[in-house]
Amino acid sequence: MHDGTFVKVTKRSPEELWQAIKSDAPDLWFCPHPFEHLYNDNAGHWALCCRAYPMDHQVGDTTPEDHWKHPLMDDIRREMLSGKLDLVRKYCWKCLKMERDGLASPRQQLNAALLKKKAPGQSKMLDVASRLTHNPDQAAIGEGRTLELKLRVFGNYCQLRCYMCAPLNSSSRRQELGEIRDGHWLRCFANPEKTDFFESDEHYDRFLDSAMRLLPWVKKIKITGGEPFLLPRHHKFIERVLASGHAGKIRLSYDTNMARFHLGSANVLDYLKHFKAVTLAVSIDDLGARNDYIRYGSEFEGVIANIAQARTFPGINVVVSCATGMLNAGDVPEIAEFFHERGLEAKFNMCVINGPIFLQARHLPDALKEQYLPKLEASPHRARFTNVIRMIQQPRDESQYQIFLQYLDDLDQHRGTSWLDLWPEFKPHSRRSGSDSDSALSQVIPQPA
Ligand code: SF4
């Protein structure tokens, strides 16, 4: 790691930074996340965001405060403010690759949202970044509330087994994959063994103490799981935020499947109403039975009813996140329209499935791509799924498609389901029509010892 002293940073006011981001100035490669976002991944590693390469330090050995002032974070901020990239090439490789491939990267989408919503003088985050251009040795913390906490430390219990989910994010998914092919798919999903990052409850409490000390600078807390509403540690965390007296200044946001969200239960309402605002980002990946296959264990009508109930409470905003890959890429226009008719915004661009690779929509058979693309292009909601279109347009790899087929056949055999009954358009392109995937499969799945 270098110490950043050789990186020349142009001094800029918040207004000048805003203009430089807008004009894509060559001496800047800006992303808001390193200046406002604290995130750890599902293996316990600190990272710049959920798309970034994980850092070596972990929540078990580095508190939120120490992570925020970590020398690596300082060096990355300096690089972004100088445009001279070195470490960023490693940690933000996904955004760099997407931009090279002509896709709108999360970084670009975040910058576009920043430029759209805020005048430069109103952005405390830009103020922090501006002060760092004048004095890079300052702490990356401002006068007001600039920080977003997205901590994945509350556990991974989830009752669903979504077909694209990393097993570390769902205990049920992890268990199911462990039961199929002697755990071959579990190993294929690169799943580390460790699911709790803290040696003891005292250790966890020390971590929380540090998070609590940051609360005067926190504007947003994002809770993710597992399924957050089913995680006791999450309730304990929220109780401590309430006791701190800061909740009324903080926006609370959840990634939730809403499958067992009973808003009528007193304890949930008791705490949600104390926050400045609450957003429920509900994961729904298709309509009806197709959704319930992709998000196995979910019940579409029940989720829709829970959303309707949640929306009756003032201060609660609901959005829909749709992770798009092989099975649902062709359904995106209908999904967008379904929620549009109900006054809900379904988001696609930030949730295109990149991993596992064999679930990327780029590997769809050409005949299906030809069927899907005109429909997506003609949709009035096209702007919401530009990245889905670009993903489909990328070159396919037949061996990845064969792995996808084997994976679904294995899930079906285990569950007693039939994905081809739900997606008959795949029948002419299925293994049952005569393809042989064994050689492709052996490339990615470890064979039994
Ligand atoms: S540039 Fe991309 S990967 Fe890096 S922090 Fe920003 S959004 Fe995350």
Describe this structure in words.
The chain is α/β, with parallel strands linked by helices. The chain has 21 helices and eight strands. The chain has an eight-stranded mixed beta sheet with strand order 2-1-3-4-5-6-7-8. Helix 1 packs across helix 8 and helix 19 packs across helix 21. The longest helix is centred in the last third of the chain and has 18 residues. It is globular and about 60 Å long. Iron/sulfur cluster binds next to helix 2, helix 6 and helix 7.
Question: What's the topology here?
Answer:
Layout: H1 14-22, H2 33-36, E1 37-40, E2 46-47, H3 64-68, H4 71-82, H5 87-91, H6 93-100, H7 106-117, H8 124-134, E3 147-151, H9 171-179, H10 184-188, H11 201-214, E4 218-223, H12 232-244, E5 251-256, H13 266-272, E6 277-283, H14 288-294, H15 300-310, E7 316-321, H16 332-341, E8 346-347, H17 366-378, H18 386-393, H19 398-415, H20 419-422, H21 438-444
Parallel strand pairs: 1-3, 3-4, 4-5, 5-6, 6-7, 7-8
Antiparallel strand pairs: 1-2
Helix pairs in contact: 1-8, 19-21
Bound molecules: iron/sulfur cluster.
Fold-level CATH name of the largest domain: TIM Barrel
- Please tell me what the overall shape is: globular
Which percent range describes the beta-strand content?
5-15%
Strand order of the largest sheet: 2-1-3-4-5-6-7-8
The distinct ligands, each listed once, are: iron/sulfur cluster
In short:
The chain is an alpha/beta fold. Helix content is 43%, strand content 8%.
List keywords for this structure.
binds iron/sulfur cluster; TIM Barrel; 449 residues; alpha/beta; 8-stranded mixed sheet; single chain; disordered N terminus
